[in-house]
Amino acid sequence: MENCIEMFVAVGNLLAVTTAAAKSFSPLLPFSVLRLLALILWFNVCLYVVHYIQYSSLVPHNQRTIATIISLFLGPLVFLAAAIIYFGAVIFKGLSQTVQQHSITERLQEAIAGLRITSLRHPRDNFSIKLLDTAGTELKELYTHGKSKKHDSHILRLSEEIIADALLERASDILIDPKDEFTYAIRYRVDGVLRTVRQLEGDVCKAVINSIKAVAKMDIAEKRRPQDGSFIAKTSDGTVSFRAASAGVHNGEKLSIRVLNQNAGMFTLSNIGLMDKQQAIISAAIAKPNGMILICGPTGSGKTTTLYAMLNKIDLFTRNVITVEDPIEYVLPNASQIEVNPKADITFAKALRSILRQDPDVITIGEIRDEETAGIALQAAQTGHLVLATMHCNSNAAALVRLVDLGVSPVLLASGLNVVLSQRLLRVLCKHCKRPAKLSRSQISDFEKRKINYANIYEAKGCPHCNGTGYYGRTAIFDILVLDNVLKSEIMNNQLFLADLKKDGEQRGKSNLQKEGLRKVVTGVTSLEELKRVVG
User: CATH number of 264-426+476-516: 3.40.50.300, 3.30.70.100, 3.40.30.10, 3.30.70.3290?
Assistant: First the structure.
């Protein structure tokens, strides 16, 4: 029996030494190889001990059974004790390091969140991209820098990486502009907010701008006069269209690239942010055979997305749909789409005149910009056509006032216009990192007075998934004005009504948007800070 005890002591010492060695060296290894080897060694030693007890002459025959049972229990207990000691040491060490490093980590996170500067990632292995002009010619065939071919290939690769990374980051715009004579900044607009992603040397970035101008069919030699063009990108996920615009600025040339929305065909009235009641109003207006639905809002407020969501509600097989757009962002099957081209003398007004001779049921106008377009659109709405249009205005009241200022008569306005809706886009809180909001006493008191449940109000934090912003994606809020018979009568007969709109309509529209936005806040979709940033 004494021999058995000595043997177990020896085995215990061997395991202790092995575990200590593993703990000593494993932090230096990325995959804890020694810890794994120690586990394998421990398992084999346990098997050897059991085998030794069964067949060794040193263990008395009448004690082999109890010795085997002890060895079977002793092995797991040794492993458990070693694990407890190890993890206890790790936790203790981690806590002590956390106390020392907590303030440093917080400062670094705040700095990263404040600067919002991220380096460009290389495109993913399964994400390939080729830049082509609208005729289908690749960038490498269009661009020749005049230096070494190695330099040219580097510039072309960098241009493709900038575009590819913008797509991976869900950017809607790419801005390349000079900070000074020697440095250019590349910025992405993601979810409506700009952030700097890289800074390049002046000579390199000028070459990148020239390569993109070449594929967009713009004059590379012209640096000061504003130009615009378009190009496409073939990716592993499909084809993406871009619109580019350049302008001469202080210290160099600025290039803006708009990523046209290729997912417009997937949007419906139910997934753009409309409440159930609002969906019913819009659906009823779309079902009518005539009248105008006017979508208004500032630049970047999602008007085109809402326009396509309405078109997706229409049966394109039974209704003749013709659109006039600048540019065409998404190809609709079974719809006739016309792109505005001022160089070819194709304007909204001229395209509308030709459309009226093509037996349309539904006419879509990308933007009402002038008196002629507004007049033709409202006349078409009055004469048996459903017209969907957008306009750059801040509110429903401002849209009515602007139409009158464009020269549209109150009678034509009242008889042709059915629904006006203004909208804004709010960033959606990241589901991976949003946290309950820390409300002030005054905010809590205000919610309690208004009998609003503030239990589900969240705020942004920031994580790798949302690139430290705290938000991922956007949703829309709407203010809908239905022109019923009473309202139409007031517009036609009472000029004071328009004067009141100019005076108080803007504030009423803002208040309605705030109410809609607050609904998104109390349901945890967005934050109070985001609502204040967008609506005020």
Answer: 3.40.50.300
